[in-house]
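Limitations
The structure tokens in this dataset are predictions for the assembled complex, not deposited experimental models. Users should treat interface geometry with appropriate caution, especially where small molecules or nucleic acid strands are included. An illustrative entry is reproduced here so readers can see what is and is not provided.
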Amino acid sequence: MSESTKYFLPEDQMPKAWYNLAADLPTPVPPPRHPGTTEIISPDDLAPIFPRAVIEQEMSTERWIDIPEPVREICRLWRPSPLVRARRLEKILDTPAKIFFKNEGVSPAGSHKPNTAVAQAFYNKEEGVKHLSTETGAGQWGSSLAFAGSLFGLEVSVFMVKVSYNQKPYRRALMETYGATCVASPSPQTAAGRAILAAHPDSNGSLGIAISEAVEVAASRDDTKYALGSVLNHVCLHQTVIGQEAMLQMAMAEAEPDVVIACTGGGSNFAGLAFPYVREKIKGRSVRIIGVEPSSCPTLTRGQYAYDFGDTGKLTPLVKMHTLGATFMPPGTHSGGLRYHGMAPMVSHVKELGLMEARSYHQTECFAAAVQFARAEGIVPAPESSHAIRAAIDEALRCKAEGKAETILFNLSGHGHFDMQAYTDYFSGKLQDPEFDDAALAEALTDLPEIKG
Amino acid sequence: MSESTKYFLPEDQMPKAWYNLAADLPTPVPPPRHPGTTEIISPDDLAPIFPRAVIEQEMSTERWIDIPEPVREICRLWRPSPLVRARRLEKILDTPAKIFFKNEGVSPAGSHKPNTAVAQAFYNKEEGVKHLSTETGAGQWGSSLAFAGSLFGLEVSVFMVKVSYNQKPYRRALMETYGATCVASPSPQTAAGRAILAAHPDSNGSLGIAISEAVEVAASRDDTKYALGSVLNHVCLHQTVIGQEAMLQMAMAEAEPDVVIACTGGGSNFAGLAFPYVREKIKGRSVRIIGVEPSSCPTLTRGQYAYDFGDTGKLTPLVKMHTLGATFMPPGTHSGGLRYHGMAPMVSHVKELGLMEARSYHQTECFAAAVQFARAEGIVPAPESSHAIRAAIDEALRCKAEGKAETILFNLSGHGHFDMQAYTDYFSGKLQDPEFDDAALAEALTDLPEIKG
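Predicted assembly:
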């Protein structure tokens, strides 16, 4: 088996429980707080927008949480996802390093997102919800929830960040194929959207704005709940099937990673691959864990670790995280899924504890890596995932320079089939690396909420 | 294992030889003839456009032809492809039938086409060719050859049928990502293209025209050969890995197909899945084998079995096949890969021998099947593949009506990620089922070449 290119687990070895890092952290993640009072919130405060089971998972410190059988059954459509040895890339780089990647692009929607979408749709269905509202950046999350909704007979409404809505009409078509509706955000359908449109009629939108719209819809309709595709603890939890599978598959390949890499937008694909390895690291194992983000939205590398709102409209609970400020507006790059002002509180906490590293790259150097990867391995990656590829290639080149035969594992969080305009723009030279706006960051950070008591 | 959803073969069970149906046919396929003299052609006649090894395979009657190890190594990037049991679709249809599909959409270019593209690129590289020219309809073949060319350092030029070029800009972007160049056909770059443009400036193009352009380029440049993505014997040969794998995987699933289904454009994905089963059928096994084509381009169901040109420009050898006439211009439907006036001579011969059935569907009923499939199984199929899905669903419904627990196996030849405009058009009601033009067919058939001697 160790000479294979792809490592598949049998379906009966798909994880039966999610791994909850909260059980193993040396200090707990700071709790969420009420956006008005700034008091620590109770489960009841979240009940208008999330189902009970999801709220329990959000607050849980149990190490293992059983995956319901109907969720596992649906995930068998594509899981366990393959672990792949990038042999051709290794050869082209002429590196002594071994490069492995977990291919989450094999899912119906083309990314890791269905891992949590199916779970969230299941719990909502169980609790009698009829309709889910959500936001989406690049469209990966929206199409994942559309897919999951179609399997459980739930109506799904997606607010899609306008810059991506215009760049990626076929993501919208995919959501509609799964039976969901999709509108550009900011939209005139919500008070939050109308307020932004009044102040900035040409707004490109942002994940923060789209979240405000989706939460508003959920809070104002009895049959509707909200579903979030990243950031929160339960989302990170649902993604841990990735890392659990990877560990079994790395054992099949008779290899152990020295470096574990994933891109970070809201943090969930990173958490999915990395948290099982963070657990090992806490137990004393030597492994470097690297989160990779865009230089245009450098949450972990330039953000402040502070309580902040998850959305621009300041409707969500306050969570302690690395943030650029809820009003920070990232430029309209092609990595829509990484254009978020904050970071998963649990990932932020892991960073503060020194259990991970973070680095940032400009988009053109990521596209160069993506094209090199596509021409070696055949798979055209999502622009988001290309950040992880850039870091993996750089680590492999470092190994070459240092003469070290390390093992590198990265998460290929999704394919780029719906992102080809980005590649067209890259080849035509139209893609820019926007200059980072230090003043805008400084201003957005002055706006962080003050915590009382 | 029999309770699984997906059946994976280990990489070392990937076929080591291609299966050549010519060895088992009760009567031989009529040989190709020279377009000028109409004499039976010799291998030398094909030498200007194909490499020697490919010409040998085209004419071979050996039952098994070894797959070169470098080809197998590259195919391990995605092969063996999964066999999937469509359990959710079965449930929704409430049918006693078992439905299996072979998922060729997992390849880098998203269809079965790389199976032959890699082999053809390998043989050309071995014989010192620097540049490959080809045509593409929907873009599946062009992107597959672009991918294969990038792996072997070959320059690739693709003539893309204009209607698809305009419908599918992201297929072009995919080819460019793999390093190929792609122009709309008819183009001003060739005499064949200029002649069409002079007569029909608004021509939508057709596979027949694009073939003329690509062959012209190959014939006129010493460092250049032509590569064809379907129709010819060697292409059908290279695709037989599909059916060979499927047989092993059906055994893993402890099932045997009563019905084997694939869509037919040029015939290669059909041949790939079906020919190993045709062999069994010749040996006496009871199995129905069904080719499914668009009602707008009904080669097998309404064409004439006769010698005809493979292209509109009348440059190619004459082959005996089911044809609508080389000048027949199919309407611009969304199944670009099925818009071909002819059919693989070997598939045509199998049809004449009564070893297969053929049927045709309108595109809207195929899209309805595609959406039902996507909402059940998560995978959005290529419009071409939706023809096979339509037939599989209809067979499953027949089983329900007749109370028969048959086993149905179809080829999901590709995914539809680059065909989302077609889905958008379908949902908006813009998709039409064009009325078949009987007079145009009759006229095109008057133009069939006369065979001397």
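Some entries come with short summary sentences. For this one: The CA atoms of residues 208 and 311 of chain A lie 4 Å apart.
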